[in-house]
Amino acid sequence: MNIWDTLxxxxxxxxxxxxxxxxxxxxxxAHAGRPDLFFTEFTNVSSYASDKGRHNALERLEIAPSDNPxxxxxxxxxxxxxxxxxxxxxxxxxxxxDLNFGCPDKHVNKAGGGAAMIRTPDLAIECFHNAxxxxxxxxSIKTRLGWSDPTEYQSWLPILLSERPxxxxxxxxxxKEMSKVPAHYELVPExxxxxxxxxxxxxxxxxxxxxxxxxxxxxxxxxxEVDGFMIGRGVFANPYCFTDHIPTKEELTDLLxxxxxxxxxxxxxxxxxxxxxxxxFKIYINNFPGAKDLRTKLMDTHxxxxxxxxxxx
Length: 313
What we know:
By secondary structure, this protein is an alpha/beta fold. The protein is 42% helix and 14% strand.
């Protein structure tokens, strides 16, 4: 069964974000109100293909029951490593594999992966071929409009669509633009036209500046040919963004408590820096009177019990 053919129209996805969408945060969002589809954090295929890096890769690829359905997102530049990783992913409980051809991180790009693939299209297609022939799972792609010029989509996206991926997610900015400019929604009609002409069976997903479920539905009314919408930073403003619910202070605090419980459980299996946990405080302690002062106190903590004592106040 192809997961992409079972989703509602439009469907909503939580965008893969490095250091954010790990197994703990996904469980929190599932509790608040899950999207139709989850993605994992990015996993480097070369890490999985090495004895030294496989442990870390498998940690990133761990999934919880509430994650399903979930797509494994991978990146790299070695076609053979894409083959090896995708073969393994077929047996790890995923509903699909997504190739990251859009990450703007300078370290990922220096290694030849993520958005750097836009500049090496032949290599990108070879990696896609190796991925697809090595797994029974549907293979999709996430990318950007181009490297430096938004009009690069006119040549880049047809290359990808010609390979008929199961789905194509387009972040409506270039690598150079990062997230410093508004997403180029004016290009959606032309992108949809390309999809319809070249690979009409490919699901088209749009990413960039989408705030919540209501906003996604408004966009779908304007761009009905788009099949799905991916929410990234919108989840920082409201972890209930996949619902119509406006959370109370108590509900947000309960989500933080759940995250603390999950962190303690996960820390028994893997080393997780306490500093990474602090990145999530601003998600839960936000949008209510006194939130800023409370966050300041939480950022000065060093241990979970300190956090629990503070949020009891």
